[in-house]
Amino acid sequence: MSANVIYQKLNKNYRFNKALSFLFRKGLLSDKLFLSIKYRLKVGRKLNWDDPKSMREKWQWLKLYDRRPEYTIMVDKYRFKEWAANIIGEEYIIPLLGVWDKPEDVDFSILPKKFVLKCNHSTAHHYIHSGDDEPDREFAVGLLKKSYDIDHFWKSAEWPYKNVEKKVIAEEYIEDPLNPRLVDYKYYCYWGVPHYIQVNSHAKHEYFSDQREVRNYQGFYDMDWNMQEFTQEFPYEHDVYTPKPANFDKMTELAKKLSQGIPFVRVDFYNISGKIYAGEMTLYPYAGLGAITPEKWDFVLGDLLDLSPLKR
Known about the structure:
By secondary structure, the chain is α+β, with helices and mostly antiparallel strands. It has twelve helices and eleven strands.
């Protein structure tokens, strides 16, 4: 069955993504065919495997042709801590409070008044407890179960997640007493060279724990801290300027160290009152399919990624 035939059959079905993942999980679609259809459905263009040009095309190409065992460690929020500490130092790692095999196993009795619970393989449905009251254990476990069931490989063929051993981890709660909105600095790095920084800020406790609607802000900056016109995927407020951190050069140095030898990776940091923490590393932001607007920037960003070393 050709990609075009499947596209025609599934495109009119609002549940096409779920159906597509089902076919992929059952082995009825190869990784390449699955990604071809997924890209066509999401982006609206045919994916050029032989000569990819746009950033989103190249992200799909990397999923298929750049598969290194260490990527599985990098995307695992549990194993990432030790891996990153060996490169940049323990002082830049958010302290680990506990680790369990399943959400039901979490031992709340050992946790401090403030903590963060998350699954090591997912970015959604974290439980953040930032108060002195008793944590809502039933709600926390239910939230973590939603995250636990997410599988990025079968959902969007993100190969590094395929062999991640699922865990639930507890981290130290980090907060900036001078800024109620937690700021996240996300470096877009190409072969170890940062080119842009995505800056997100949001009310972290509200946004992750109970999903109440809050105002979120996103801006992209170049390495001279000039705000750019493009954005990616979510409808963040885009016209809010975030000042350049005083220790920007140090944070950039750490991003370079963590991204060395990798064709593309997004390296995320928190910067709390001058204290830098490595958050996570993402090889395909928004599964490599999130809309980049204006669309010309899909190709501007793509031009930065040289695939020739991998093709050789």
